[in-house]
Specification:
alpha+beta, 7-stranded mixed sheet, 6 helices, 19% helix, globular
């Protein structure tokens, strides 16, 4: 027997279900970025506006960086790029490096509406420190049912050669040893410029060993092919075969270094060149992000910002590297650093304590369109978390960039079929219905 559900009843069911899903959860976007010898120098100050462009495009909640020269530089970045982007951000304590190389530091900045900083520690390692930051998710039940996350950030030894691989391994061993001292069910993010050339490296393999106190995994699980068991040392330059390294075109969508083929004409001309061909930048996570219902990884959210997957051995601003990430963003990325940021999202069913809700928004001209949807805002929204749903509750991916100004958004909906849709955002207290004609 077939049952008929009246359209009004079906719509009511969808609205109730959607409201419970949309407002009963908190999503946190983590971003790791090597910011290339950042200080308060004239060069760093002049390239800072490009970081503002990047932050406005990505809108992270947890910003983890390496290659900060000193605390003065960290403060300049915070005051001139991060706070103008989101005044709810705070910075973790700055810690001078206590390990082998003293020239570069790690640092973390965070959205205080979603994260509560509790404490930080320094783990000394081979080359640079491993900085640990403990955060509590700022949920409505944070006091009676706290959800904590341990965030580790580091910068492993660069360059090829057995001695440099050994130093990377040494640092990873220090990290793994330290995880013996924290609860085995801890939620862990481990991020940084790891400088691994292949998943065959000893350090990478040690990191993901399932016998470790806390099992660490790669969210996207994109290992290079395993070295053949043929007695050949493929790390030896004379035997090098790119098949077994990330430096080949089959991994072009996850390469994060180098954004440049030349430093000519760039504000900061100290970066590496050679084109986009290595996966050096990572956010790794504890396995429980894939098994827990309290705090979990959002599938397919791991991205290399600015990488359209078609820029192998080229500079990121090349017009031939067009795609989802705009030319404006890619121009900013090549100016600011020789690395690309990597991002991933995590989510909890718990609602954040923040009451920062937009109560008044409206369509410009009409909620009926055949190409572009225009919306007027009374407050700034994170455009990267805007969602479109069908009348049946199916989530539709926004395939094209959203253009924004201070008080308006323009969304390209030309790819949608004709029909009724709903626009949502975590900060909106109502659904927006629009019609594609």
């Amino acid at each position: 027997m077939k049952y008929y559900i009246p359209k009004k009843a079906g719509l009511f069911f969808f609205l109730v279900l959607f409201t419970s899903l949309n407002f009963g959860q908190t999503r946190i976007k983590a971003m790791m970025y090597n910011i290339l010898n950042y200080s308060d120098s004239e060069v760093s100050q002049n390239k800072t506006p490009f970081l503002s462009t990047i932050l406005n495009e990505v809108s992270p909640d947890l910003l983890m960086v390496c290659e900060v020269v000193d605390e003065i530089g960290s403060n300049y970045l915070f005051e001139n790029a991060i706070i103008p982007h989101n005044e709810d951000f705070k910075k973790a304590p700055f810690e001078e490096n206590q390990s082998g190389s003293y020239s570069l530091q790690q640092m973390v900045y965070y959205n205080s509406n979603k994260l509560i900083f509790e404490e930080s520690r320094v783990i000394t390692a081979d080359t640079r420190d491993i900085n640990q930051y403990t955060f509590k998710i700022n949920t409505e039940n944070a006091e009676i049912n706290p959800i904590r996350m341990e965030v580790f950030v580091t910068h492993l030894k660069a360059s090829t050669g057995s001695s440099n691989r050994q130093r990377r391994l040494n640092s990873i061993q220090s990290f793994v040893s330290y995880t013996n001292t924290i609860a085995s069910d801890s939620y862990v993010l481990f991020a940084g410029d790891f400088n691994f050339y292949t998943s065959n490296e000893e350090g990478y393999q040690y990191l993901i060993d399932n016998r470790n106190p806390i099992i660490i995994i790669d969210p996207i699980n994109r290992p290079a092919p395993t070295f053949p068991d043929d007695g050949v040392d493929y790390f030896n330059y004379d035997n090098y075969d790119s098949t077994y390294f990330w430096n080949n075109s089959s991994f072009s969508d996850i390469h994060s270094q180098s954004t440049r083929t030349s430093n000519s004409g760039l504000i900061d001309d100290s970066g590496s060149t050679g084109g986009l061909d290595d996966r050096f930048d990572f956010i790794m996570m504890s396995e429980n992000f894939n098994t827990s219902s309290d705090l979990f990884y959002v599938n397919d959210s791991y991205q290399v910002v600015g990488n359209n997957g078609n820029c192998y051995n080229s500079q990121i601003s090349n017009s031939n590297c067009s795609g989802t990430y705009s030319q404006t963003l890619r121009n900013a990325l090549i100016e600011f650093s020789d690395h690309l940021p990597v991002v991933m999202e995590i989510e909890t069913p718990e609602n954040t304590l923040s009451t920062d809700v937009v109560s008044s928004i409206k369509f410009v001209n009409s909620n009926t369109t055949e190409d572009y949807l225009k919306i007027f805002l009374t407050d700034k929204l994170d455009k990267n978390t805007i969602k479109i749903y069908t009348i049946n509750g199916q989530l539709i991916r926004i395939k094209t960039p959203i253009n924004s100004s201070e008080n308006s958004l323009t969304i390209d909906v030309r790819h949608l079929s004709k029909g009724i849709y709903y626009l949502s955002h975590q900060k909106l207290n109502n659904l927006l219905k629009f019609i594609k004609i």
